[in-house]
Amino acid sequence: MTTHALPESPMGQRLWEIFGRYPWSFLQLRDGDRDWMTVNNYPLKPRVLWKRWQDAATQIGVRFGSSTQYAVIDIDKGSPHLNSIAIAGIKEALETIGIVRVINMRSSWSGGLHLYCPLPEAVNTFNLAIALKGCLSAHGFDLKDGHLETMPNVKAYGRSWVKEFVEYQGHRLPLQPGSGSMLLNDQFQPVSDKLERLFWTWEFASTQQDTELLAMALAAAKNNRRKHKTVHTPFAEWRDDLRDELSQGWTDYGQTNALLKSIATYGRVFLKLEGTALAEHVEDTARSLPGFDRWCRHTHEIARKSWCWARSVEKYYYPAGSTAASEGDGKAIEDKPNGNKERSWDAARRIVNAVTQLWLDDREDLTKPTDLAAAIVKFARCSLKTLYRHRELWHPDTVEAQLGEGKTCKTAHVATLLDCYRPPDTPSIPNSAITPQPLINGFLTHPGGGMKSPYPENRHKKNLSSGMVRGFGGKEGLSTTGEGV
């Protein structure tokens, strides 16, 4: 509770509640000034903040204190990240630390973008700064002043022995009259410049954040900055815990991010996967876990989320047995001599089960390969990319060509092909292994992902200009240089 007199307006009170946590060293830019000025000779007060915010001739900005209930991702005009593809990648990256809802805001007439990240409760500012920087860096985003910045920033330590204190970077307040700041929708079109709309959106976004995942990310950020402390985890116990967690799959809504992280961690550490192989492992495993169809609300975007988590985990974990691991704890742990062949064989087995069921059901409506592929993906719980990697098991053209004029039983033919995918030292596949299984929820349209998913490896090849993001145009006016505003 503030001891200062609050403005009469409820909007002014709410503005202070969000942005007035640290009243010192606030920023100010008056008409005619070239650069922002830091005001150090007195602290900002609620009624002063509200008055300056309403004044179209004065722009005002604030800094972060020791705790904060929001963050800002600043993308300036001219930045290579000011395009729809990069912005989508930034939002995907933020999801891996629990920030699943952001607010799009045009920062000013200059055309920059602020992504506001409201939080349901206050968190340690420095831990959040480290988590934000590590998150975006792990996903390949180059943080650079004037291009892409995270606020709060990872500031330098002040020299206490000479009473030196380093401030966090400041940012301008949103939606100030005359500034050109606008609330944008998901298509980056201006929708409002009213505080009422902002605060309504703010409240909704803050309640949607994954607080448990964010708390884990902040704790990890805190530990990561203590470089002198080394934590040794019993690998066997860690492996068993991950297996136990994954064996139960989904049991309720809201578990997707946690499960994808565990799948990616297991694939990275114990299966030694990386890159595309790790992403596909995450997707395929997720689709095969219990409860996926019933509880997962992200089936339509599971390929994108799988890639995002794979890329994030790959930056934080190393394969067991690598040079980064200790001699005692880093020994590789695998269940099979050849993990890649086993995963391929398992996917082939699931595809065979699906194909067998479809053929026995004599599905006449699946005359097109695309329709057949969608049905197989749903039943086999695999990605479209994995399905096409095993094209010889199901595609009509391939199977008919291999059967030849004799046209022998397709199921027997596929079972024979499946033996090619059996890893060494494993028994032959019994006939019961390809016995049709009951359908789950019938045959549904494939929810997305697969070959048509925009995998990140192609994103940076599309050098879209900032013109692709609508709603950033307008009058050139106030400068945003200096002080991170």
Describe the structure in your own words:
- The protein has three domains: 203 residues, DNA primase, PRIM domain, CATH 3.90.920; 104 residues, no CATH class; 108 residues, no CATH class.
- The protein is 40% helix and 10% strand.
- The strands form two sheets. Strands 7-4-6-5-9-10 form a six-stranded antiparallel β-sheet. The chain has a four-stranded antiparallel β-sheet with strand order 2-1-3-8, with helices on one face.
- It is built from 17 helices and ten strands.
- It is an alpha+beta fold and 485 residues long.
- The radius of gyration is 27 Å and the shape is elongated.
- α7 crosses α8, α8 packs across α9 and α9 crosses α11.
Major β-sheet profile = 6 strands, antiparallel
Low-confidence stretches: 227-232, 323-339, 405-483
| Quantity of strands, as a count | 10
Q: Classify the fold: give the CATH topology of the largest domain.
A: DNA primase, PRIM domain
Shape: elongated
Which CATH first-tier class of the largest domain would you pick?
Alpha Beta
Residue share in β-strands: 5-15%
The mean pLDDT is 76
- The helix content is 40-55%
**Cα-to-Cα separation, first versus last residue:** 28 Å
Number of domains: 3
Based on secondary structure, the structural category is alpha+beta
Give, in order, the helices and strands.
Answer: HEEHEEHEEHEEEEHHHHHHHHHHHHH
CATH architecture of the largest domain: Alpha-Beta Complex
